[in-house]
Amino acid sequence: MSAWRVSLYVLPVLALTAADARPHHAFSPVYDEKQLITVAGVVTEFRFVNPHAMLLMDVTDETGKAAPWVVEFAGRLNLSEFGWTAGSITPGERVTVTGNPTHTGSQRMFFRKLVRADGTELLPGNAQRLDAIDEQRRRRARERDQQK
Amino acid sequence: MTLVSVRRSRPGLLVLMLLTCTPAAADAQAPSSRLEGMWSDPPTTPEGLFCFFACTDAGLARLNGLLDDPANDARPFQELQAEAKGYEREYIRSLLTPAALKRYPFDPADDPGFLRCEPWGVARQIFAPHQIEIRQRGADRIELRYGEWDGRRTIDMDGRPRPANQGPTAMGHSVGRWDGETLVVDTSAVAANIIMLPDLQAMGEHSDQMRIVERYMRSKDADTLLLTATLEDPRTLREPLVLKKIWRWAPEQQITPYEDCERPAEFKKGARP
C-alpha cells in the first residue's frame, strides 16, 4: 500500500470510531477502528443504497498508475437523516477521503471525512450530533457558572 | 424531552415517561392515531444518543451522574457516553445466566446479518436504529415497519391466541392491546437469535424461550415515541431486563429500499469494536 498516496496514522483516543456511524452491524471485523488513512483521487461512482452507501474512486500513485478504491459509508437510511442525497458526491469530482483501513490493508476504507477540491467537507452525521451536544453542555456550564 | 427534564425526574427515563405521557382519557382520538406515522432517529440530546439502540435506567443514571459533575465539563460527551456504556454493559452482564455469559459479548464476526446478510430477528429489530413506521391495518391489526432491513411485524389486536401449530419464527408471534394510549405488545414464539445487549458493541444470544413485552407511548409534547421493553428468557437472563428507546417524530422521513447487502469479502474474527 505504500506506493499509493496514502497516509496512515493512529487515531487520537477520542476520535470517532466506525461504531459511531450507527451501522447495521459492527465494522470491527473488517476495519481497524484505531487507525485512519487518507487517499486522494477522482470519484467514479457513488452508490446511495442500503445497507451501506459506497463510493468508488480512482487513486493515482506516484508513477501515475491508477487503482480503484472503495469507500464504505453508513446506509442511505442513516445518511438521509442528515440531508445526503444520491447527488451529494458526483462522478468526476476530485476528493480527498479519510477513513478506517481494513485489517488486511486492501484498497478499501470506512468513511470518516471527505474533502472536496474547493475545501468543503462531508462528515458522518453522528459527528454533527456529538458537536451539537457538546455545545449544549458548554452552554449549560456557562449558565451554571453565572448562577454561582 | 431534554437532559434537564431527565435529571429532574430521577431515577430515570421510566419516571420521565410516566410524567410526560398524556392521560388516557384526555384525548378523544382512537389510541392508534396518537402513534401512527413515521418516527426516526432520536432527538439530538445526551439521552437520545445514549439510547440510540437501547439503554437501561442504570446506564442513564450513570450518564447523568457524569454530566452533572462539573469536573467532567471539559470531557467530550463521547468519552462520558463510552464510560456510561461500559458501566451499563457490566450491569447487563450481571443479569446474564452462566450459559449466556459464555458467549457475551458475541464476536461481531459471527453475526449472521454481517456474514450472510440475514435479516435481524425481532429481539434486535425492535431496537433497530433509524425509521419505524406505525400503521393501523384494518380493525384488528397494527403493522410496525422498520427502515433497517425493511423489517415488518404484524401485531394482532383482536386477542386471538397464537395458533397451536405455530413454532418459533424470526419475528415471533405478537399480540397487542391498548392500555390507555399506550400500545402494549406481547411477543413470544421467537426463534433463538442475536440480541443487542444493549447495542452492536455488546451483542449476546437469546433462546426460543424469549418473551418480550413492549410498551409504546407518545410524549405529551408529541415529539417523541418512547419504548419500554421488558425481556424475559430463563436460559439467558437471570431476571427480566428492561431496555428503553426513543424515536423522534419524523414525517419527512421515508423508508428506502434495502436490497444491496453484500457478504463481506474479508474480515477478521475477534476484532472487538
If you had to describe this structure to a student in words, what would you say it looks like?
The complex is a heterodimer of chains A (about 150) and B (about 270). In chain A, about 20% of the residues lie in helices and about 35% in strands. Chain A has a five-stranded mixed beta barrel. About 5% of the residues of chain A have low confidence. In chain A, strand 6 and strand 7 form a beta hairpin. Chain A has about 150 residues and is α+β, with helices and mostly antiparallel strands. Chain A has two helices and seven strands, in the order E-E-E-E-H-E-E-E-H. Chain B is of the alpha+beta class. Chain B is built from nine helices and eleven strands. In chain B, the strands form two sheets. Chain B has a nine-stranded mixed β-barrel. A two-stranded antiparallel ribbon of chain B has the order 7-8. In chain B, a hairpin with a 5-residue loop joins strand 9 and strand 10. In chain B, helix 5 runs antiparallel to helix 6. The interface between A and B is large, with 43 and 47 residues.
Query: What fraction of the residues of chain B are assigned to beta strands by DSSP?
Result: 25-35%
Q: What ranges of chain A have pLDDT less than 50 throughout 5 or more consecutive residues?
A: 11-19
Q: Mind summarizing the main beta sheet of chain A?
A: 5 strands, mixed, barrel
Structural class of chain B: alpha+beta
User: Major sheet of chain B, described briefly?
Assistant: 9 strands, mixed, barrel
Mean pLDDT figure of chain B? 89
Cα-to-Cα separation, first versus last residue of chain A: 56 Å
Strand percent estimate of chain A: 25-35%
Q: How would you describe the shape of chain B? A: globular
**What is the topology, as strand order, of the major beta sheet of chain B?**
1-2-3-4-5-6-9-10-11
Class from secondary-structure proportions of chain A: alpha+beta
Say what oligomer this is.
heterodimer
Largest protein-protein interface: A-B, 43 and 47 residues
**Shape, per Cα inertia axes of chain A:** elongated
The counted number of beta strands of chain B is 11
Instruction: Estimate percent helicity of chain A.
Output: 10-25%
Termini of chain B, distance in Å?
30 Å
Give me the number of helical elements of chain B: 9
